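ARCHIVE CARD
CATEGORY: sequence design from structure
SOURCE FIELD: tokenized fold
FIELD CONTENT:
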């Protein structure tokens, strides 16, 4: 009671009746009376689907799509803004991952293969819910391999010694992946005795090892997203006359050597050297004060090595055999 106001609040939605015995009092005397209350059952209607979600189609890989589920379901007796959405099940998690962010369904395909997936969704309002389906079609994505768009022209060397640097950037392209992700590798060198090769990123270094006439084919590979294209770089080394060792006064002996190798250059006060394996790996280097030095190659494996001798602005390559 609030003054002469009777305040009644029902406690649940069930069917029921109630009798309130009331008393009116005046000047010490009273009369009782009854207030009969009928509580009809209240049926809380569940939400239902008003805007089914259309099929979601994936045509690319990688790819993520989002679907706003706001408005998919409605509740006839509760505010729609109170409806929450959740994922009940995913029929194909190996092909598709799905998560919820508020009322946003976020889907990400997991591979480039053809597949379908059915997401069982749930819209919940005031403790009641309705399930619905989101069908996902995942079309196969054919990942095309890279291909050559700018072939490398023949490399011609008319001088000795000679080093050529080739920038391979742009030699290949990938029709469905960024070209900056293409990696270049060297597969083989057909003439390692005449030409030293090495890679630094996308730069191919070619270093001539002899003044004699020679040719070499460098097998290259451009790789993108697991697929590749092979291509060839042809190198022509023309005969260079008049470059005998005595022209520079350079000696490297004994050659072949069992480990000790003497380098000498007439008329210089200092020189540097780099020793390369037959695959272009630098295995030794140093600076020499004077015009002669004895190198210890005994720790190297038996085989062919190339010594780059540098002084002033000059350079000469000597082939050395360690036996």
């Amino acid at each position: 009671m609030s003054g002469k106001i009777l305040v009644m609040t029902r406690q649940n939605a069930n069917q029921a009746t109630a009798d309130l015995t009331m008393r009116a009092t005046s000047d010490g005397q009273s009369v009782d009376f009854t207030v009969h209350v009928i509580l009809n059952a209240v049926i809380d209607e569940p939400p239902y689907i008003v805007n089914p979600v259309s099929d979601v189609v994936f045509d690319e890989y990688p790819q993520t799509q989002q679907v706003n589920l706001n408005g998919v379901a409605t509740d006839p007796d509760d505010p729609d803004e109170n409806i929450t959405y959740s994922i009940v099940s995913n029929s194909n998690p190996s092909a598709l991952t799905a998560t919820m962010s508020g009322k946003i369904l976020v889907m990400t395909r997991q591979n480039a293969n053809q597949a379908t997936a059915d997401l069982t969704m749930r819209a919940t309002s005031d403790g009641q819910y309705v399930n619905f389906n989101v069908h996902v079609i995942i079309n196969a994505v054919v990942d095309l391999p890279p291909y050559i768009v700018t072939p490398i022209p023949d490399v011609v060397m008319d001088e000795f010694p000679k080093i050529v640097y080739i920038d391979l950037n742009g030699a290949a392209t990938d029709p469905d992946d960024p070209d900056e992700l293409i990696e270049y590798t060297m597969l083989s060198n057909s003439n390692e005795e005449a030409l030293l090769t090495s890679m630094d990123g996308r730069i191919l270094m070619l270093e001539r090892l002899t003044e004699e006439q020679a040719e070499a084919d460098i097998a290259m590979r451009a790789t993108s997203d697991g697929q590749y294209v092979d291509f060839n770089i042809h190198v022509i080394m023309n005969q260079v006359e008049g470059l005998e060792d005595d022209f520079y006064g350079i000696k490297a002996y004994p050659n072949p050597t069992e480990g000790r190798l003497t380098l000498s250059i007439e008329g210089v006060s200092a020189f540097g050297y780099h020793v390369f394996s037959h695959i272009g790996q630098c295995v030794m280097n140093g600076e020499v004060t004077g015009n002669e030095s004895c190198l210890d190659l005994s720790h190297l494996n038996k085989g062919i090595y190339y010594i780059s001798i540098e002084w002033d602005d000059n350079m000469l390559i000597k082939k050395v055999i360690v036996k």
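CARD ANNOTATION: Confidence is low (pLDDT under 50) at residues 242-246. The first strand starts at residue 16 and ends at 26.
SHELF: design records, drawer C
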